[in-house]
Amino acid sequence: MSRWVLIIIASLATGCVTARANIAWPGPPATERIRFVKSLSGPADFESGAAKFFRKLSGAEAPTQLFHPVGVAVTPAGDLVAVTDQALAQVFLFDVEKGSVQTIAKEALGGVPVGIALEADRPWVVVPQLKAAINFSRLGVPLRRIDLSDCERPVGIGVDASHDLLYVTDTSTPTGGTHAVHAYKLSTGEHQAALGKKGDGPGELFFPTFVNVTSSGNLLVADTMNARVQELAADGAFVRQFGERGDQFGQFDKPKGVATDSFGNVYVVDSFFSVVQIFNRDGKLLLFFGGRGDSAGFLSNPAGIAIDSKNRIYVTNGLNFRVEVYELVNTTASDSTSPPPSGA
Questions:
Q1: What are the domain boundaries of the chain?
Q2: For position 304, what pLDDT does the model report?
Q3: Burial bucket for residue 233 (CB in 10 Å: 0-12, 13-18, 19+)
Q4: Integer distance in angstroms from the first to the last C-alpha of the chain?
Q5: Residues 278, 255: Cα–Cα separation, whole Å
Q6: So what's the architecture of 3-336 in CATH?
Q7: Among 62, 111, 67, 102, which Cα is nearest to 85's?
Q8: Whole-structure pTM over 0.85, yes or no?
Q9: What is the rounded distance in angstroms from the CA atom of residue 251 to the CA atom of residue 249?
Q10: Cβ-contact 71, 89 below 8 angstroms
Q11: Are 35 and 26 in contact (CB under 8 A)?
Q12: φ, ψ for residue 234 (rounded to 5)?
């Protein structure tokens, strides 16, 4: 039994989060692995206490805040966090380094944004009703677009700049036959291939939503209505899957966002259960965090997830109107694979 499995058992025994100033998972006496850092909701996050006081005193209108965030992307350094808001039909660009927030309005987007990914610090945004992926500058200036008319309902997006590829999930419809991941040449927008087909077998998809490109160039696809995450090679060949339908740890109801940390562990958001589950490279469950609730660090209808190079974790908390930020702590590569110490 690995030490991560022992952590899960300890979490169940003690409660996932205890009532303390430090919100973390699992609860004591187990070693903390995931620690809540802060929430992001809008420009007010960067206001000083005095600025907030005088704004309220003057009766000035509060700045626009997130209302239903869905997709999220972050630069490796964590200095830019890009978020799509489905209710406001806007994109929020949190410049953490400058302490400012830019927004891209619906008029510039041409519709409601869903998926988002970064090419360096430039957001690519999927607008399903336009069947287009639009590239913006860090400041929200439109640069170019890629036509996604090969998709019936494009939703999620992943960028593999090193191989000049952009991937888009086609969620399609219950009766549609185009449930797949489409690959496009990033530099030209040329359609390269449709990966996967409708079904529930290995490499087949049913309502794929979010997609993440791993460091090896493989794809992690949230195969949402098949209640699993599949790893596919760049040519669409099936590699492995995580999870199955169920309500136990390691199982899913509606997996959505998927991301990897610096150790290669895979993080999967389950929007129905409002948790994030972590699997190691071998597909073994390590830990879960979050859980349904509206207080800091807890989740309600989460969807997207992104992880920066410092292993800070960003999760869109849809019905709580914010992005939750966590960090991986007290962890080395061996914690994902090594057996527990003697006598544990």
A1: 3-336
A2: 98
A3: middle
A4: 10
A5: 12
A6: 6 Propeller (2.120)
A7: 67
A8: yes
A9: 5
A10: no
A11: no
A12: -65, -20
- At position 115, the amino acid (one-letter code) is G
**Is pLDDT of 344 > 90?**
no
Side by side, the strands of the sheet bearing 255-260 are 255-260, 266-270, 275-279, 285-290
Distance of alpha carbon 74 from the chain centroid: 10
CA–CA separation, 36 and 323 (whole Å): 11
Give the CA diameter of the chain: 64
Could you write out the DSSP letters of every residue in 60-88?
PPPPP--SSEEEEEE-TTSSEEEEEETTT
Q: Contact 313/56 with Cβ under 8 angstroms?
A: no
Question: Structure tokens of 62?
Answer: 């509060």
Half-sphere exposure of 49 (CA within 13 A, CB side): 0
Q: What angle do CA 143, 148, 153 make, to 5 degrees?
A: 125
Give Cα separations from 9 to 1, 49, 199, 333 (angstroms). Answer: 11, 41, 35, 21
Any idea which residue has 């869905």 for tokens?
70
Q: How far apart are CA 196 and CA 208, in angstroms?
A: 10
pLDDT at 297: 96
Residues 29-51 have pLDDT tens digits of: 999 999 999 999 999 999 877 77
